[in-house]
Amino acid sequence: MSLSNVFSIAGSALTAQSMRLNLVASNLANADSSTSATGDPYKARHAIFTVTPVSASEPRVAGVRVTAVAENTTPPKMKYDPGNPLADAKGYITLPNVNPVEEMADMISASRSYQTNVEMMNTTKTLMQKTLQLGSA
């Protein structure tokens, strides 16, 4: 693998982790909302990553990409609040199935993955610069 391939692989990972961070931010922003634009409770969404092969005949990986955004299938939370105008006949309101603790852990993981890929790109850039300096000495 050439050093220039590192940039495309790490770049694809940066794009995927950025999408993951955006989804986490959206989930956290809607954690306490009682309805979405459709009128139903918000459902947490998560990125599904897939590796991108170099070609069908070669097993080497050329990057990663987000192939789908899946909605969390856990049931929504029910909260007893009979005074709320959105409450059902039994006095319960339906809240999103977002778990803020899981979302924060996911955010930390995505952030660290993003940072690791940036550091890998910087290290590769430094190695390429050092290689060029060897040729001019």
TrEMBL record:
<dbReference type="InterPro" id="IPR001444">
    <property type="entry name" value="Flag_bb_rod_N"/>
</dbReference>
<keyword id="KW-0966">Cell projection</keyword>
<comment type="similarity">
    <text>Belongs to the flagella basal body rod proteins family.</text>
</comment>
<keyword id="KW-0282">Flagellum</keyword>
<feature type="domain" description="Flagellar basal body rod protein N-terminal">
    <location>
        <begin position="9"/>
        <end position="32"/>
    </location>
</feature>
<dbReference type="InterPro" id="IPR010930">
    <property type="entry name" value="Flg_bb/hook_C_dom"/>
</dbReference>
<dbReference type="InterPro" id="IPR019776">
    <property type="entry name" value="Flagellar_basal_body_rod_CS"/>
</dbReference>
<keyword id="KW-0969">Cilium</keyword>
<dbReference type="Pfam" id="PF06429">
    <property type="entry name" value="Flg_bbr_C"/>
</dbReference>
<dbReference type="Pfam" id="PF00460">
    <property type="entry name" value="Flg_bb_rod"/>
</dbReference>
<protein>
    <recommendedName>
        <fullName>Flagellar basal-body rod protein FlgC</fullName>
    </recommendedName>
</protein>
<keyword id="KW-0975">Bacterial flagellum</keyword>
<feature type="domain" description="Flagellar basal-body/hook protein C-terminal">
    <location>
        <begin position="90"/>
        <end position="134"/>
    </location>
</feature>
<dbReference type="InterPro" id="IPR006299">
    <property type="entry name" value="FlgC"/>
</dbReference>
<comment type="subunit">
    <text>The basal body constitutes a major portion of the flagellar organelle and consists of four rings (L,P,S, and M) mounted on a central rod. The rod consists of about 26 subunits of FlgG in the distal portion, and FlgB, FlgC and FlgF are thought to build up the proximal portion of the rod with about 6 subunits each.</text>
</comment>
